[in-house]
Amino acid sequence: MKIVVIGGTGLIGSKTVASAPGRPRGRRRLAKSGVNTITGEGLKEAMAGAQVVIDLANSPSFEDKAVLEFFETSGRNLLAAEVAAGVRHHVALSIVAIDRTDNGYFRAKVAQEKLIEAFGIPYTIIRATQFMEFLGGIADSSADGNIVRLPPVLFQPIAADDVAAIVAEVALAAPRNGIVEIAGPERAPFNDIVARYLKAVGDPRQVVSDPEARYWGGRVEERSLVPLGEARLGRIGMDEWLRRSQARA
Ligand SMILES: NC(=O)c1ccc[n+]([C@@H]2O[C@H](COP(=O)([O-])OP(=O)(O)OC[C@H]3O[C@@H](n4cnc5c(N)ncnc54)[C@H](OP(=O)(O)O)[C@@H]3O)[C@@H](O)[C@H]2O)c1
Asked: DSSP 3-state helix, strand, coil percentages of the chain (rounded to 5)?
């Protein structure tokens, strides 16, 4: 089976591609794509003979307009090439709560999901909570000098290793024509998790719980960022993830 990974050099993409050798092989080929979904370069060649496409591309800019344009253009070009090649399963990685929590990035992911549903290729959308690898970036984006202001809403980050393992598994299963939600094994207030992360990595910045603090510019409430219904949980908790990332550093 030929499986193409778009964004195979990224955080989740590289781990998804790397997860192939340890899994049952058969005639499966999990290839990095080497394509540009915005210009269309290499798309036709990459899709030839592909049964499954995993879209793990991300926008180089997170600015509201740029990110929306990225996911709309990339999604449209990719899905059109998949229709032409007869791809039988489109897998995409999205984010929990994008349709009930407002910010520019989430709006772009909603647009990506709508395109997937509209194109009619059998699909599975995996909505993940925030990656643990993203905690440092969240602290940076919420910092004012040495103070990091975060709302005390529930947060349930998942390790990229868990995400990649689930993505690889979902790609080999039958399309759900729907959404699967995944999250980390621990749920705690956002400010507590980021404070725990900063302490563990020796970052002296202080985290302050602020109910008025926004997430990527959007207002969030207690359950704005966590799954509301059933979600598959990753196996790697924060302590284990911190141990692994410190061992890798
Ligand atoms: N951050 C989170 O907490 C979170 C949570 C849930 C879901 N997600 C979603 O997970 C997905 C993967 O995120 P990530 O953090 O693994 O991304 P990442 O590390 O930023 O990697 C992005 C990938 O996209 C590729 N790419 C960028 N522009 C491209 C283009 N025009 N054509 C083809 N490929 C292109 C990059 O290739 P180059 O290396 O060649 O630039 C890279 O391989 C994203 O869709 C994101 O929305 C993120």
From this structure: 40, 20, 40
